[in-house]
Amino acid sequence: ALVFGTIGVKKVVAMQGRFHFYEGYSMKEVTFPVRVLKYLGVEKLIVSNASGGVNPNYKVGSIVIIKDHINFMPEHPLRGKNDERFGPRFVNMSEPYSVEMIAKAKEIAQELNIEVHDGVYLGLQGPTFETLSEYRMVKILGADCVGMSTVPEVIVARHMELETFGVSIITDMGDEESILSVSHKEVLEAAKKAEPNLRKLVKELIVRVNGHPLKPNQMHCLSIFEWHLHHCLKWYIQFLYLPTFFW
Ligand SMILES: O=P(O)(O)O[C@H]1O[C@H](CO)[C@@H](O)[C@H]1O
Ligand SMILES: Nc1nc2[nH]cnc2c(=O)[nH]1
């Protein structure tokens, strides 16, 4: 479901849930909603996820602003004939995550006294969590956290020149002691704890980042959307996904 509303003077659409490759969808299916959002007029994309931390400075509940990613997923969403209406055949991935939005998010986090880290996210296909050796590999490869999503959506967003911001909640740590207890239940619980700060951060980022303001007569939607946002974030806790798209 797509939830439409406003935050401040920005029009926002939140996707309730995402598709994962491990669920059996193709990468084209996984990323189809991003294409739809672009054609709805979305200019900026905010993607969130839950991930396992391999950076020893992180702990369960850490908020990590994704500054880059490593694509270790088995199928590429842009494989096959390129549709030039969407974007070019060969996509520049030098800046997949908006430097401007990252800077703004860090500024907001400091003001709101929310601890944030930045880091590199590595995407694996899942659905298994990593073995200890795989977590070590992730670290050696230069990533700070690992998950099973986000990378395909961000690639497709960049294909269509959507400005993208990504944030990850560290829900478990990929070290010797911690991996014994890694489970989806633990992931959900950790995501739930981080939710209030993530909500404040994302909301304020949407308010402050450059974008097209609403016309004055559209302002009445605000309080309705506040309600939606609350329920979206609840949903996020259950399904670990709140990509928010705004234009
Ligand atoms: O990346 P999201 O969907 O946020 O969630 C992460 O957490 C789930 C595993 O617990 C997997 O879906 C993994 O990718
Ligand atoms: N691959 C992977 N995905 C996750 N999602 C939440 N935690 C993890 C993790 O440790 N590994």
From TrEMBL:
Q: Which SUPFAM superfamilies match?
A: Purine and uridine phosphorylases
Q: Which reaction does it catalyse?
A: 2'-deoxyguanosine + phosphate = 2-deoxy-alpha-D-ribose 1-phosphate + guanine; inosine + phosphate = alpha-D-ribose 1-phosphate + hypoxanthine; guanosine + phosphate = alpha-D-ribose 1-phosphate + guanine; 2'-deoxyinosine + phosphate = 2-deoxy-alpha-D-ribose 1-phosphate + hypoxanthine
Ranges for the Nucleoside phosphorylase domain? 2-206
**What family does the database annotate?**
Belongs to the PNP/MTAP phosphorylase family.
Task: Name the source's superkingdom.
Answer: Eukaryota
Kindly list the GO molecular function terms attached to this UniProt entry. Answer: purine-nucleoside phosphorylase activity
Q: What is the protein's given name?
A: purine-nucleoside phosphorylase
* The keyword Glycosyltransferase is annotated on this UniProt entry: yes
Which NCBIfam families has this protein been placed in?
Answer: PNPH-PUNA-XAPA (TIGR01697), PRK08202.1 (NF006054)
Q: Which PROSITE patterns match?
A: PNP_MTAP_2
Q: What is its EC number?
A: 2.4.2.1
